[in-house]
Amino acid sequence: AKAIFENMDVLSSLMEPISIGTMGTQKPYRFSFEQYVQEAKTKTPTRKAADACTMQLLISAMESQTTQTDGTCELAPECSAQILKGSGLAFQQTSRIRAATLAYLFDCLEGVDIPAHIYKLCIQVYKETKSLEAWDIPPGTRTLFMQQILYCSTQGYGEFIKPRWMNRILAWQEPKGCYSDDRQPFLKLTGFVGLTSVPSQKEREEEYRVKKAASSEGGACNSLTSAMALGSLVIYIRALLETDQAFQYDVLT
């Protein structure tokens, strides 16, 4: 959450004009949440691979900017494939949208219509977000739900800016103002984080911090969950400021 405040100019550079009517109706999945979890296990990338791709994007972009050369941001083939190929669900899918957005921002994939690719991903995510709602936002999926809203509404897709979804996010706020992070079991169930791999010291420290935050009365303001909540609410406020149609977005249920 602090990072969002400190980098508001970067966040604003990612925002596209808000519009509605491009996502279609997208009915929820007909299968159960348990089946969804099993299907997500078959998707890629893992968090480790996704984080590696994000770091490569950022490092390559910084190098191309600091060296003052004409060279463009370059990506390894496996990172490009992670963004452009295959299919995803859950955090596997949102990590692809994050990477695609950064690739577009830093001009890392020449000759590729990245906005069109993000559009296709967000159509898939919209169906998934509506499915999570239909399943009453199962335990461990709040962060994912808010991440889906933030990433795709930032790209201008107003269907993700629904008053009833914003009301849910506000209702999850802890008494002291922040949000508890409960995503760890879900990350493992969907295969985004391996069940059998031995965690590194850094991963153990993060898991301890997340568990502590989840059990805290006030949540943790520096958690990913709080950041996604803040980002989603910022987008909603933006919609209220920029258009008088914000409260009509629920029409496209």
From TrEMBL:
It comes from the Eukaryota. InterPro entries: DUF4735. GO terms for cellular component: cytosol; membrane. PANTHER family: UPF0764 PROTEIN C16ORF89 (PTHR33539). This is SFRICE_018922. It comes from Spodoptera frugiperda.
